[in-house]
Design brief:
Length: 120
């Protein structure tokens, strides 16, 4: 029988949603359209070793270059920030994904918790 892999739910990593939202805003609202891997002027993420690793786990929002620089996937190479409404929609989407992953995780844990309690 083939083993089934449990899907990875990166949004459930502690402080992950916070990091994704921060980076969406940072990359979306500034003139500079990317963040270099060696940039020391930006806070470090709390949920990953660096921004490159966080972005690799969230290709739904971010691109990563071979050199480890990151950019927002909806942004082109111009120096113009994206519209605020686009940033807001991306944040809303990130929150919805987090909520769905949390709900699935809770639904999967519920039968085990009930079994431990001896509930029907």
């Amino acid at each position: 029988m083939a083993a089934t892999m449990k899907p990875t739910r990166h949004y459930l990593t502690d402080n992950r949603l916070e990091g994704v939202i921060y980076l969406i805003q940072y990359l979306g609202l500034r003139k500079d359209n990317s963040l270099a891997a060696d940039n020391e002027s930006v806070i470090k993420p709390k949920s990953a070793k660096n921004w490159e690793l966080l972005c690799r786990e969230h290709p739904e929002f971010f691109n990563v270059t071979k050199r480890g620089s990151v950019s927002l996937s909806v942004r082109d190479d111009t120096k113009q920030p994206v519209e605020l409404s686009v940033v807001q929609e991306l944040i809303k989407t990130a929150m919805e994904i987090h909520e769905r992953q949390f709900k699935v995780d809770c639904d999967e844990k519920k039968p085990r918790l009930l079994a431990r309690r001896g509930s029907p």
